[in-house]
Amino acid sequence: MKKICIFLVFSLILACDSPQQSNEKKIPIDVYTTFYPTAYFAKRIAGQYANVVCPVPQDEDAIFWKAYKHPEIIQKYQQADLIILNGAKFAKWVRKVSLPQNKVVNTSKPFSKNFITIENATTHSHGDGKVHTHKGLDGHTWVDPHNAKVQAHEITKALCKILPQHKEQMQKNFTALQKDLDALIATLEQYQKTANNNEPLLASHPAYNYIARTFSWNIKNLDLDPQTMPTPKQFAAIQALQKKHPAKFILWEEYPTDEIAKAFKDKLNLTSIEFSPCELLGEEQQKQGEDYLSVMRKNVANLQAIWK
Question: 139: helix, coil or strand?
């Protein structure tokens, strides 16, 4: 009888312990993102506790990538422990598939009332020949480091909910990331205080609306491909725009070819400046050890040519 009682007590202890053990996630957890910036944030915050995957191919645009054409990839998203979205309808494919909402974190939801809408955008194609339009919600939220901080915080909250036992370390990692983003903000605020803060600017692509609004940039958007020489008609249109908006600088997501940069300088007296939104980190950049933060630091440094 004594042996039976001991067995029952031991069984009860095991039964009480089992739910806690079963609820504890294996390390590392699987985290899937829809593009590079949120993948970088998740890796900085989670560290060794998560296997962070961004399956967007190197030759694809994260905005227009058709993930739904790859069922095996969608299945991996569905099986992940956490799915991180930029929000603001950035990744178009998300609305066409079924994702487990209890695993999804929409990182830009806290400032959704402040989303920017792009009006009067035309349907067009660039050098890749893929037809698209930028009309509708502007999803380039993270380009403004203020928004990036909020989005990283949403990722931190979601990770801490899944891995509460590692909450303290992940919050420390977030604090370190926040300090890095604050340093970018501090430099941008210094530029904002310069006498020529209202300098007219042009953007080759509508990727800078959020950061421009925050730091009061006087910017007009175009839609140009850094690898494709504009037509005489396009050059004429830009020249006409300069009569009302006398810009001397143009921001590019990727520095244009030498021939194109020279043409803009010779024909329009426009100096080309690279400011990469870092939607994707290229293979060459990865080989050189670059990451989201190093690219953003270069971007901010490149702006010194405008706000000296």
Answer: coil
pTM (whole model) above 0.85: yes
φ, ψ of residue 193 in degrees (nearest 5)? -85, -5
What does the block give as tokens for 39? 């993948």
CATH number given to 191-306: 3.40.50.1980
Lowest mean pLDDT among 9-18, 127-136, 193-202, 228-237: 9-18
Class of domain 29-107+118-175: alpha beta
Sequence-separated contacts (24+) of 145-149 with Cβ below 8 Å:
145/181, 145/182, 145/184, 145/185, 145/188, 145/211, 145/296, 146/185, 146/214, 147/108, 147/111, 147/210, 148/37, 148/41, 148/181, 149/178, 149/181, 149/182
CA distances from 212 to 118, 197, 249, 253 (A): 14, 11, 14, 14
Q: pLDDT (tens digit, 9 = 90+) per residue, 204-249? A: 999 999 999 999 999 999 999 999 999 999 999 999 999 999 999 9
